[in-house]
Design goal:
The protein is α+β, with helices and mostly antiparallel strands. It is built from three helices and seven strands. The protein is 26% helix and 31% strand.
């Protein structure tokens, strides 16, 4: 594994680069990412942001936020923004990020995480279990909510 997983809290100098990267992948306003990342840097259990990097290039990333834009406000915190660059898929980056975030959140005192997705079969490989359907904000159809308990 030539890449490494970094946390924004440990690399605050990466805030602008990480915010821009997530913004470009997900189309959510840059300001929303910057605000969440600034909150991360203020301390607390979440929000948190992570990236897999290699030679100063972000290969993949994810975050932990209170609610990933869905109607189940009681299911928190949520892993969000899981993305691996298309030319880097198949290297285990998403799985490594998911394992890292679960371990980090456990160290911070959280034993349960949630994740909203349209994918089926992917997250189960990493210990996530289907929990329920949840309605995403502005979505016509409900999406799958997964849970991971440490």
């Amino acid at each position: 594994m030539a890449y490494q997983i970094i946390s924004l809290i440990d690399h605050p100098e990466k805030k602008a680069e990480m915010a821009q990267w997530f913004h470009q992948r997900w189309g959510i306003p840059l300001e929303a990412f910057l605000e969440s990342m600034e909150a991360c840097l203020q301390g607390g259990v979440y929000p948190q942001w992570y990236c897999a990097v290699e030679d100063d290039r972000i290969l993949g990333g994810l975050g932990v936020i209170e609610n990933d834009f869905h109607d189940r406000k009681d299911l928190r915190p949520n892993v969000c923004g899981v993305y691996t660059e298309p030319d880097q898929r198949g290297r285990g980056i998403a799985g490594a990020l998911l394992s890292h975030v679960c371990e980090d959140m456990h160290r911070r005192g959280l034993d349960t995480l949630y994740l909203l997705t349209d994918h089926t079969g992917f997250y189960e490989r990493y210990g996530w279990q289907f929990f329920c359907m949840a309605q995403g904000d502005g979505e016509e159809q409900p999406s799958r909510m997964y849970v991971h308990r440490m």
